[in-house]
Write a structure and sequence with these properties.
alpha+beta; 60s Ribosomal Protein L30, Chain: A; 5-stranded mixed beta sheet; 7 helices; 5 strands
């Protein structure tokens, strides 16, 4: 733009415009030219700044594209991992389902075995107790209508039946070796009960009250033992009960069933117990054998 004054100069010289006017015009144009140059420089600076911003924006865009590409790569890797995990999960689920099915079958078999074992145990215990139940029935049938009800008592517990008989029904008064006639009915009932189950064994237990007994130099324990031993021997010799199935015992005055403070209580305590027990050893052996099957 600096060559413009030189172009205008010949024109001005050839015109009738005065020199002063030309100087004014020249100054005015110079000022305008300077302003235009400043604006042009400002625009160039703005363009440079815009280019710089564009370059930064392009660089940022490239970073974003790179980050996006990296994220896409990671997503692909994670998707592959998820697919692999999903496959493993399906495989594990299938395997666990098979194992659960097998465990359920084993549990069903174990429950069936347990139910069978429980039934077998109940059968063994029932058979064990049945011998006692039969013995009780035989004793009751033999004594009913033949012996006064208030002179004896029958009780049953697990594996055991006990017949408690008053002394005056068995022995003559103040004796330990002379039996009354009713004693034969009692001993026959005991023998029949023992024969109803060959596993039953008998214990004859003598009892007294707390008063002195009629036998000299004998305490109540010994006196009750003599009576029990005599009855056991009577069963073995007269009724042919195998001796290995009967034994005699005594509690003397030390196991009363009621108070000895009255004559009636003393009479009740003078008694003999016939205790028939099933063979617990056989029961235990059968249960142990069942547990090993």
């Amino acid at each position: 733009m600096r060559f413009l004054p030189f172009l205008l100069l010949p024109i001005l010289l050839s015109s009738c415009i005065s020199t002063k006017k030309v100087d004014e015009l020249t100054a005015t144009h110079a000022n305008q030219i300077s302003l235009l140059e400043q604006k042009m420089m400002a625009r160039q600076d703005s363009i440079v700044k815009l280019n710089s911003s564009l370059d930064r924006a392009l660089g940022g865009n490239e970073l974003l594209l790179t980050a996006q590409s990296n994220l896409e790569d990671k997503l692909v890797v994670q998707k592959d991992q998820i697919d692999a995990l999903s496959g493993n999960l399906n495989s594990t689920s299938s395997r666990m389902s098979d194992e659960l099915s097998a465990v359920r079958k084993q549990l069903g078999a174990a429950e069936l075995k347990y139910d069978t074992l429980l039934q077998d145990q109940q059968g063994i215990v029932y058979t064990f107790q049945q011998g006692v139940t039969r013995a009780e029935a035989v004793i009751m049938k033999s004594l009913e209508a033949n012996i006064p009800d208030n002179s004896y008592q029958v009780s049953v517990s697990a594996g055991e039946v006990s017949l408690s008989v008053q002394e005056d029904l068995l022995f003559k008064n103040r004796t330990s070796e002379k039996l009354n006639d009713a004693a034969a009915i009692v001993l026959r009932a005991i023998l029949d009960a023992l024969q109803s189950d060959p596993l039953l064994k008998l214990t004859v237990v003598g009892h007294t009250d707390n008063q002195p007994n009629p036998r000299r130099n004998t305490n109540n324990w010994e006196y009750a033992a003599l009576r029990a031993a005599f009855l056991a021997e009577e069963l073995a010799q007269t009724y042919y009960l195998s001796p290995n199935r009967v034994m005699a015992a005594s509690h003397g005055e030390f196991r009363p069933v009621t108070s000895n403070a009255t004559p009636e209580g003393q009479q009740t305590n003078r008694r003999v117990d016939f205790v028939l027990r099933n063979n617990v050893g056989n029961l235990l052996r059968n249960l142990e054998k069942l547990g090993k099957e």
